[in-house]
Amino acid sequence: MEVELVEESLCDKMDEIIHINLRGTRFSTVRSTLSRLPVAITEDKRGTYDVQNKEYFFNRNPRIFHEILDYCETGRLHLPENVCSQSSREELSFWGVPQDCIQQCCWKAFYKVDDEMDVLDKLLDYLPLDTDFTRAQSGVQSSGCGNFQGKLWRFIQGWSSSLAAKVWKVVIVVTVLVSLLVFLLESEIDFRDVFPLTTVLINTTGTDQDSTTVVPKTITGHRPKAWLALTNAVTNLILTLELALRIVSCPKKKHFFVSFLNISEILACIGVWIALYLDNFTVTFDDTGKRKPSYIFVFLLCLFRVFRIFRFFVNNSGMRILMLSLRSSSRELCLLFVSFVSFAVMFATVMFVCEYNVKTFRNIFVAIWWAFITMTTVGYGDYAPSTPLGFFFGGVCAVFGIMLIALPVAVTSSNFNDFFNYNRYRSRHHDHVKKSRDRRCAGPLPGVQEGIRSNSVTKTLDDQAVISAWNCGDLKPSKTRVIPFDTKCQ
């Protein structure tokens, strides 16, 4: 009889209704449901029991507590899509609910934030909000270099630092464009002066096959026209001066000389000066009218001028986001390359067998060339199948090429879209924070000025300066005393 009474009392206790208050939102459930929760709510010291309202109060977010109670009833955890998964993680950790119980239908919404945080972390590492010249300026000051070096680096790298810096940036951009234009014009024979080198005698056979005639032939050379060489010298002089200023003012010389663009700029400047000297003061052709091997090496140095165009994109956020998208899609691009080569070899082998009797392809290597051209939908037309079976596999090869290229392109474009949008959101948030701080720095907060006692402030600063510095967070404890506030200050 006593055992039955104990069991009845336990059943009544398990059916007892428990009220839980989460920041004003009240939940009611039975004790048996809460008993399945890893955290004992009735014994949790993180909450308080309100005797008057007969409820347990917890200062927690109530948005997913419905789902937690459902988990206690069914053992399956479903999460709402309109709640940040990071907030859901915190609540699940507080109530002791394991994430392993999340059902498959909620995986996408719950784990999507992990991908988004990875995107944001990569964006912060690769494209910080601070500009290069600002970081370099801080590097100059921290390394103990002179103030002139920091100002010079800011002037050269920070085009928005002053009006003179903007003018200098425009001059450099125009100079680089003119330098590239000169490089292109030098390859056209109409913009080069032809001059004789030597005259040689050539034996020619007459019409009767017995007589020979000696004909003199003039071997000629060529060099850029005078005005083109002068323009090349002026542009290279400006770029050499700009390069020298960057080397002198750069706070981290080691990082400067390991940059590919800086190395290419140094080689281009050296190559142009040597080429100008050789073209105007020496003969760079041999007796047969061909360039000397030494000049070919100098010409290769001059080719580094084409990399100057990339200087415009170094600090461009759009170009950096594009490079970051390609880097993040490296796995998909590698998969594309491996799959492309595998299918190209397979289709090349099949086409070589199909066209073996008509000798359309001399060997499998030629067939591989045809497969690459077909799968990329270029279609030069130098090689083409001529048998019905070859036509069929040629069409299949083209379709496979389109599908292989389309899949990684979609992933890369998706990554670019994510990085671009997050960078836009981050810039907008940064501008909002900056404007809010500027408004705080514009003047003292209401009710603060009368709360600061003038005798508590360092004598070197007036009250208004201290208030502005306090609001901006620039007031250093080493220069001021503690600022007491009046008890009436709100």
From TrEMBL:
Keyword Ion transport carried by entry: yes
Gene3D superfamilies with a match to the protein in the record: 1.10.287.70, Potassium Channel Kv1.1, Chain A, Voltage-gated potassium channels. Chain C
Segments traversing the membrane: 167-185, 226-245, 257-276, 296-314, 335-358, 364-383, 390-411
One of the GO BP terms on file: action potential
Subcellular location: Membrane
Membrane topology classification: Multi-pass membrane protein
GO CC annotations on file: voltage-gated potassium channel complex
GO MF, one example: voltage-gated potassium channel activity
Main location group: membrane
A Pfam family of this chain: BTB_2
BTB domain: residues covered: 16-113
Alphabetized UniProt keyword annotations: Ion channel, Ion transport, Membrane, Potassium, Potassium channel, Potassium transport, Transmembrane, Transmembrane helix, Transport, Voltage-gated channel
PANTHER family registered for this protein in UniProt: POTASSIUM VOLTAGE-GATED CHANNEL PROTEIN SHAB, VOLTAGE-GATED POTASSIUM CHANNEL
Protein name: Potassium voltage-gated channel subfamily D member 1
Originating species: Mizuhopecten yessoensis
